[in-house]
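Researcher: Next sequence.
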Amino acid sequence: MQADIVVLAGDGIGPEVTGAAESVLSAVAARFGHSLSFSHELIGGISIDTFGSPLRENVITSCKGADAVLLGAVGGPKWDNPAAKTRPEQGLLAIRKGLGLFANLRPVKPHPVSLEASPLKAERLRNVDLIVVRELTGGLYFGEPKGRERVNGTIRAVDTLAYTDEEIRRVVECAFTLAEGRRKKVTSVDKANILETSRLWRQTAVAVAGNHPGVQLEHMLVDTASMRLIAAADGFDVLVTENMFGDILTDEASVLAGSMGMLPSASLGDGGPGLYEPIHGSAPDIAGKGIANPVGAILSAALLLRHSLGLEVEARAVEGAVDCALREGLRPKDLGGTTGTKEMTEGIIKQLKS
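Model: Next structure:
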């Protein structure tokens, strides 16, 4: 197979972890006889510093022409000014919108060696194997109107939560399709006791479930789901929810894996390239020190192989190599070890070659 991948390394540790993922993908290509080419573009704070924009239109065009996009992380204290009109995170929202990405997949399956790094008891984690499917294009982050106004000396801020039934249907359909290949259970998370958008969400989820009779659908309020993620996460298979709820719940779910550095994600749409990134942030406090955990980015590369390139065997090979490297004693700092980024990456590539 021949494929073109655009790398958006971003800020902070982004270049370090995407570099690790790129090295692993190159090793996959060499082992399995594929031809993968990589091009590099700027996004986030570094793009603001260089071009005055968090994401240029020509970068979106380049990504549209690729087979997949690998992303690091954006942002940092340098650009953390709430009053700024241009922020690194705008680049992330723009690339998702530009590529038509509406479903963010975040698998959570704690590795046995990472159980001790989680603040939760190991017995609560041993059977956890779930995927959170987060809607990406609607909700509070994109609803209009939004903004501020001063009324009689009082400042009033407005954000609008809006969804259409079609936006809901397509992401719930994605969740059911995933569940058919897993344990055949979908948990739809909403706030239907309060929000009209959640009532529409629940109604639409029921309609989609009618087309998937082999999959169980349960509804759960978001406050209950946030509690169950900690108390009984092994009862979940596929969770699907709206944009802001998903943003919060997936960060909470990182506790199950012991560290954000361990978790990958995939953002998908209807055809076109997918976007793959670790769920962690840019971690500017450790940038350039060579200690960033590359596992989340490397496992994101495995999702890239699976979902965008259709290379299931190769994806499983990467996941197996990560598993073997951890079992043989390699531990990044965020899991309580001393293994640096380069050593961790080389250890995974060694396992991949063997």
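Model: The chain has two domains: 1-102+269-354, 119-257. The two ends are 21 Å apart (CA to CA).
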